[in-house]
Design brief:
With 315 residues, the chain is mostly helical. The protein is built from 14 helices and 8 strands.
């Protein structure tokens, strides 16, 4: 009985000792968060490159001048909010700005919003998740051109590269004629109303043509109850004689190449062999590891390219 009481009394202590042996409770909580992030497909984002390069990303965000290319400033506003809380050391930050308004994170996907908002802490964001979400969204906005970098060439504001309106007006008529939206010599004004009316006329004509041809169209079926159209599977009529003749002519003119010959030729012309090397990262000791010369491998191929191939196929 006494021994049982001692074991029971030391139970919590043994659990604590076991946890301390694995790095302590803080380390275990971090591992639990990593597992949760992995289940939410945020492993690489939250605990990968963003976590390691957080300081670099904030430094770049301060040195670069970002501008929106549309009226949507939600990502840049969220970035500014993250920058104001850059030196925060707590795990959570408030979800309201200095004016008491809620920070808009509607630009993010639902999974991101679930990760950023802590259900147990109303009105607060998980700081590191919020920062990861903002930088991920900023990278996507830069990729799509919704956010530009002032003074940049690759991430320049595409709207600044558009033609001036005076130039557009000079070229508009010829462009509309070229794309089939305007007739040569037409004098009527072409604006949004006329453009919409023309599209409506084309859609109405296409719909009328589809209705007229429906009885003779064996491949189109419209459900009488739901009105949903569907297409029957199209069966091929077989290869046409002209296609067969073309295939035979190509095969007759296409020389047969060995597999190793193709590898040697592509290695010579493209130099893809430079992309491969030992896992140690050391440079090869051979003076000419590719054994390539100034002549194509068809005439002076390296030894490994002149070996007898196991199989051949047309190049």
């Amino acid at each position: 009985m006494a021994r049982a009481l001692v074991v029971q009394a030391g139970g919590p202590g043994r659990v604590t000792n076991a946890v301390e042996g694995f790095g302590g409770f803080a380390k275990q909580y971090e591992q639990i968060e990593k597992v949760s992030a992995h289940h939410g497909n945020f492993w690489e984002v939250l605990y990968g490159q963003i976590g390691r390069d957080r300081a670099v990303m904030f430094d770049l965000a301060e040195k670069l001048e970002f501008t929106e290319t549309s009226e949507d400033r939600r990502v840049l506003d969220a970035l500014a909010y993250a920058q104001r809380h850059r030196h925060a050391r707590g795990e959570y930050i408030t979800a309201f700005d200095e004016e008491g308004k809620a920070v808009d994170i509607s630009f993010a996907a639902q999974n991101w919003r679930k990760a950023v908002v802590d259900k147990t802490r109303s009105g607060q964001f998980v700081r590191k998740h919020f920062e990861a979400m903002v930088f991920t969204a900023l990278a996507e906005e830069l990729r799509t051109g919704d956010v530009a970098v002032v003074g940049s060439e690759e991430y320049a504001d595409w709207s600044k590269q558009l033609l001036d309106w005076e130039v557009v007006k000079e070229k508009r008529v010829s462009y509309l004629v070229e794309v089939g939206l305007y007739e040569e010599g037409e004098t009527t004004a072409f604006d949004a109303v006329s453009f919409r009316r023309e599209l409506e006329d084309k859609l109405a004509a296409a719909a009328a043509a589809a209705d007229a041809g429906y009885p003779d169209n064996d491949g189109l079926v419209i459900d009488s109850e739901t009105g949903v159209p569907s297409l029957k599977p199209h069966r091929s009529e077989g290869q046409r004689p002209s296609a067969k003749r073309l295939e035979q002519e190509i095969k007759a003119r296409m020389p047969e190449r060995s597999l190793m010959g193709i590898v040697a030729r592509t290695a010579y012309w493209v130099d893809w062999w430079q992309r491969f090397g030992p896992a140690s990262g050391n440079e090869p000791k051979l003076d000419d590891p590719s054994a390539a010369t100034s002549s194509p491998p068809s005439s002076r191929a390296p030894t490994w390219a002149r070996t007898r191939p196991l199989a051949t196929f047309p190049a």
